[in-house]
Each structure stands twice: as structure tokens, then as C-alpha cells.
Design goal:
Layout: E1 6-9, H1 17-26, E2 31-34, H2 38-46, E3 57-60, E4 63-66, H3 68-78, H4 86-109, H5 114-143, H6 155-170, H7 179-189, H8 192-198, H9 210-220
Parallel strand pairs: 1-2
Antiparallel strand pairs: 1-3, 3-4
Bound molecules: glutathione (GSH).
Glutathione (GSH) binds next to helix 3.
Length: 222
């Protein structure tokens, strides 16, 4: 039996969370090594395991993988969540990149001071409601299918549900003007692998707290 993918990152969401979601959505078990101390990060670097001196790092299939987007697309292709042809694949890429842009704004929020955070939340909510969510509502409306691409569960669906849940953590009512996205959320949440990942005790990580922020700042020295 092939070894489980091994994920090296902080004990929190950050750039690794979408990788966790994608593995979980694909029904793949994984192990995690949490970086708690600067020395762990330095050791990975000194051992030449971080291609550009950065995490996430995923060890799998005899490779040491870095660069989040590359890891995600490898996983999507490997686990058959990346469309049936190049045209579906590029649509999945577009949808994923849009949601990643939105999610990165939210992930960075926790590293800002309280005043900046308030301003940023307002901006993120404005962009979520006027730029990102309408796009996905329209996609679902136009094709009338259950999934975003090719009427088949894909990486794009997994990325979108992760993004929806992150935005809802900021404003619980955010989907009130998006009925098809509401139904999408319910549908995707009930896919067995996703349902399992949403249960308490799974490897899904909570929203960042001060300890997480302090650990990341300590390890990366900023
Ligand atoms: N393009 C990279 C960026 C990775 C990145 O910035 N990782 C941060 C932690 S989330 C890091 O390791 N920073 C250390 C550094 O850049 O020196 C990716 O998407 O994986």
C-alpha cells in the first residue's frame, strides 16, 4: 500500500488548508507534521527539502512537493477531480484561482492589526458579494447542473465550498442573496468525503487564533 501523503505546515489553515480539503474530498488519508518551532523550519531548509525555502511541503509518491498551486493541481489530476479534457480543466483552473484570491484576502486578515482588520472585512465582504459569489451563482444558474464543471464533482466544487464557509465565518448571512449557492453548499456538504471532513475531530483546521498567528510570525521571523 502506498504511503500516506505527509503534510508539513503550521497547525492552522494558511496555504495548506486547501490541500487538506482536496485530499479529504478525494477520500485520501494523510499525515501531518506541525511546525511549532523555528528549528523545525530551519532543518527542513538546511536539509534542502524546501525548493524555494517555503512551506507548504507535501511528501508523496516519492517526491517532495512545494508551491501550493502545483500541489493542488497534481492532487486534482491524480484523484480524477480535474475535468475530462483541457477545456474543463481550464474552467476548473479559473474558478479555483478566483476562489483562492478571495480566500487569500481572508487568510491574511488575521495578520493585520484590529483597525485594518475591520476595514479589510468590509472590503472582502464587498468583493465577495459583488465580484466572486455572483459569478458562481450565475454559473450554476446558466447550466442548471449540480456541480460547477462537467456535471461532475471536481476540485472547483471543493475549493468553492471551502471559500463559502470562510466567508460565512465573517458574515453568516452572506448567502442570503444567492439561493443557488445555498443549495450548492448543502449538496456538496452532503458528499460523504466532505461530510466527514466537516465533522468535529477531522483534520480541518479552525479559523486562526492569536497562538497560530504568533507561531507563524515566530517561525518565519516577521
Ligand atoms: N508561492 C508559494 C508561497 C509560499 C509561502 O509564501 N509560504 C510561506 C508560509 S505560508 C513561507 O514559507 N514563507 C517563508 C518565506 O517566504 O521566506 C506557495 O503558494 O506555496
Amino acid at each position: 500500500m502506498a504511503a500516506k501523503p505527509k503534510l508539513y505546515y503550521f497547525r492552522g489553515r494558511g496555504r495548506m488548508e486547501s490541500i487538506r480539503w482536496l485530499l479529504a474530498g478525494a477520500g485520501v488519508e494523510f499525515e501531518e507534521v506541525f511546525l511549532e518551532k523555528r528549528e523545525q523550519y530551519e532543518k527542513l531548509e538546511n536539509d534542502g527539502r524546501l525548493l524555494f525555502g517555503q512551506v507548504p511541503l507535501v511528501e508523496m509518491d516519492g517526491m517532495e512537493l512545494t508551491q501550493t498551486r502545483a500541489i493542488l493541481s497534481y492532487l486534482a489530476a491524480k484523484y480524477n477531480l480535474y475535468g475530462k479534457d483541457l477545456k474543463e480543466r481550464v474552467r476548473i483552473d479559473m474558478y479555483v484561482d478566483g476562489t483562492l484570491d478571495l480566500m487569500m484576502m481572508i487568510a491574511l486578515l488575521h495578520f493585520k492589526n484590529p483597525e485594518e482588520q475591520e476595514e479589510n472585512i468590509a472590503l472582502i465582504m464587498k468583493k465577495a458579494k459583488t465580484r466572486y459569489l455572483p459569478v458562481f451563482e450565475k454559473i450554476l444558474k446558466d447550466h442548471g447542473e449540480d456541480f460547477l464543471v462537467g456535471n461532475k464533482f471536481s476540485w472547483a466544487d471543493i475549493q468553492l465550498i471551502e471559500a463559502i464557509l470562510m466567508v460565512e465565518e465573517l458574515r453568516a448571512s452572506v448567502l442570503s442573496d444567492f439561493p443557488l449557492l445555498k443549495a450548492f453548499k448543502t449538496r456538496i456538504s452532503n458528499i460523504p468525503t466532505i461530510k466527514k471532513f466537516l465533522q468535529p475531530g477531522s483534520q480541518r483546521k479552525p479559523a486562526p487564533d492569536q497562538h497560530y498567528v504568533d507561531t507563524v510570525k515566530h517561525i518565519l521571523q516577521f
